[in-house]
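Priority: medium. Attachment 1 of 2:
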């Protein structure tokens, strides 16, 4: 453990490591996320045309000491007097500075606040200048009265060669941040905010350097011959060979395939899991490194000892990581200005997470793989999930806080408490959430409440089970229009879904990404029946990601006079794309095989639906699938229907999607 704790460097650390991230925001409630090198006493000043308001955040802040020099601050401020709507509000998240610099949380804290010489508050005017747009002394927020302007995106892989869609969104915001009417109501991150299962060598080396720099807590490991996280980091196999860390017994063959085997998917992608994140500290460091430039300035990353082929790969990945890091100041600024909501998809945890009943049996019955998934869920809870729904996640947060407080003086987390927390999170069913906006926003958890195929355990599970879908339907009743976030598209590309179905029929769903809404008959029919129900909304906007290309479909029900209108709007990825030649062929074949007159349409579960694709503005003739990294923007009219759909290209080439002229 001592090799991965560096207490002597604490004086050189800045107080703020990452954030603030503006999370759920409403007139009577503001939720923010902040990471600091010490526990801070915080104060928030809100300034608008109505004047200044100053709030002491002591009662509103949950502090989590995740390392000797790493403290998460989860801020949930409830307001007695509502904030103005559709107005620019400046905010100043200040922290108290004392001679000794510490915040007192009782015995064992860094310093006793009552004995420290108070030297005042440090304003964001001092420490947060890089988070402000030109000409502004402080970051700002706007609480929109309608969710009629949204940014959305998914799939942000740091070492992908494309540029970063979040950095592009910041450039877009910088041109209109003073216009409250032009600012989005929210940024929706619809899955794969991190890639826990696909990590570049330079990123993993940076993660280990940051763990040491901040003294992130260590943990025991079970089901492997490695006793702890610190021992894992020091092993020769930790870079590009994590599949060798499993004990060489027959029962682990399934785990090697599912976690570390680099499962080949020749039709779509090659999964590269040799650097799969394992410990809670690794995952926490990853979040800090993808959201803030500051941690990168605190570390000196040494190239690990690698074989020649691996060294070439490492150096190639380093170029992409360097470009990614260069864009992080823009990303941090964007996240400080826009209310941001998130939901996990598989790569936030592991590839093909909960794909089938057989997958779950293999993974959750082994303590090592169970811990890998559990650690990813703990990190998701603290860094993504809680900010979406503090009330709904209060109980898991309390359990996580108790576990983190179990750390010993040397930074060792309690093993049994961690196992209990993992079990609690694996059973938890409250990851999805609803925002009572106009239109209402319903965010679906398509990962943890699966409709399992009980007779064919290797077949893909439905993305939501009957009970979860019934609860979803209750959120729709009586609403004239609704925005749905489904990480995987409800209405996908029929040809690709057909290929997925063929591989599943041959018993090989893991050879392709076989997860789509139509892959499981029960889930597919239930979802389609909900969308067709007479008491559910007349207008649906479905926002999705996952697939690494972007498209828009307009959907109606055949031969129904008062059919609801639906739009499937998919934006993927923020920093990822699909193999270009392959997608071009899929696009062409899909147009030919599933043209409106094709009898193949009657073999699909959507045969009662009329699906009309939109055309990307700069596409070749007939091209419907847009394969460029970026972030989506959707503008809605007063009825909740899309009036403009645009993909803001990461390389500054924007593309509108237009209705196809027939």
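Attachment 2 of 2:
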């Amino acid at each position: 453990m001592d090799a991965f704790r560096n207490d002597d460097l604490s004086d050189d650390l800045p107080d703020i490591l990452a954030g603030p991230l503006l999370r759920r925001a409403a007139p009577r409630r503001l939720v923010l996320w902040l990471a600091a090198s010490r526990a801070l006493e915080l104060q928030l000043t809100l300034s608008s045309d109505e004047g200044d308001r100053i709030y002491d955040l002591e009662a509103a802040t949950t502090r989590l000491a995740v390392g000797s020099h790493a403290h998460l601050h989860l801020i949930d401020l409830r307001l007695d007097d509502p904030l103005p709507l559709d107005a620019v509000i400046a905010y100043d998240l200040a922290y108290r500075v004392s001679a000794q610099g510490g915040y007192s949380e009782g015995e064992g804290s860094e310093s006793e606040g009552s004995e420290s010489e108070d030297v005042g508050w440090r304003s964001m005017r001092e420490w947060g200048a890089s988070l402000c747009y030109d000409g502004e002394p402080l970051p700002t927020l706007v609480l929109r009265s309608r969710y009629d302007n949204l940014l959305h995106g998914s799939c942000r892989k740091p070492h992908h060669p494309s540029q970063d869609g979040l950095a592009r969104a910041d450039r877009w915001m910088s041109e209109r941040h003073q216009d409250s009417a032009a600012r989005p109501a929210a940024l929706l991150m619809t899955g794969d905010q991190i890639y826990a299962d696909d990590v570049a060598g330079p990123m993993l080396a940076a993660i280990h350097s940051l763990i040491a720099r901040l003294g992130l807590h260590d943990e025991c490991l079970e089901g492997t011959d490695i006793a702890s996280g610190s021992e894992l980091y020091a092993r020769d196999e930790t870079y590009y060979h994590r599949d060798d860390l499993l004990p060489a017994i027959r029962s682990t063959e399934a785990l090697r395939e599912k976690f570390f085997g680099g499962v080949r998917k020749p039709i779509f992608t090659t999964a590269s899991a040799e650097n799969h994140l394992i410990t809670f500290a690794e995952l926490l460091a990853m979040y800090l490194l993808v959201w803030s430039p500051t941690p990168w300035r605190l570390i000196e990353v040494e190239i690990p000892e690698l074989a020649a082929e691996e060294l070439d790969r490492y150096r190639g990945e380093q170029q992409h990581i360097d470009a990614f890091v260069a864009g992080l100041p823009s990303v941090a600024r964007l996240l400080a200005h826009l209310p941001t909501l998130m939901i996990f998809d598989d790569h936030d945890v592991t590839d093909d997470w909960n794909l089938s009943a057989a997958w779950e049996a293999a993974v959750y019955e082994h303590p090592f793989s169970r811990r890998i998934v559990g650690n990813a869920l703990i990190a998701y809870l603290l860094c993504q999930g809680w900010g979406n729904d503090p009330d709904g996640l209060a109980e898991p947060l309390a359990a996580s806080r108790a576990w983190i407080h179990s750390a010993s003086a040397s930074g060792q987390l309690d093993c049994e408490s961690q196992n209990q927390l993992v079990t609690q999170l694996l059973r938890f069913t409250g990851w999805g959430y609803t925002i009572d906006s106009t239109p209402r926003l319903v965010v679906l958890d398509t990962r943890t409440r699966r409709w399992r195929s009980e007779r064919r355990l290797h077949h893909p599970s439905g993305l939501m089970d009957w009970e979860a879908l019934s609860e979803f339907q209750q959120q729709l009743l009586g609403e004239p229009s609704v925005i749905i976030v489904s990480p995987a598209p409800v209405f996908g590309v029929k040809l690709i879904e057909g290929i997925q179905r063929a591989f599943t029929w041959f018993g090989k769903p893991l050879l392709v990404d076989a997860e789509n809404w139509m892959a499981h008959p029960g889930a597919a029919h239930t979802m389609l029946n909900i969308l067709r129900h007479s008491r559910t909304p007349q207008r649906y906007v479905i926002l999705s990601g996952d697939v690494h290309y972007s498209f828009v479909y307009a959907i109606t029900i055949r031969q129904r006079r008062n059919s609801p209108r639906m739009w499937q709007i998919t934006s993927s990825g923020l920093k990822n794309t699909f193999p270009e030649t392959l997608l071009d062929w899929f696009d062409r074949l899909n147009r030919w095989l599933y043209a409106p007159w094709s009898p193949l349409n009657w073999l699909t579960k959507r045969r009662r639906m009329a699906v009309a694709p939109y055309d990307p503005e700069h596409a070749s003739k007939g091209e419907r699938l847009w394969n460029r990294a970026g972030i989506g923007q959707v503008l809605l009219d007063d009825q909740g229907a899309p009036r403009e759909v645009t993909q803001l290209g990461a390389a500054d080439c924007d593309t509108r999607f237009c209705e196809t002229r027939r």
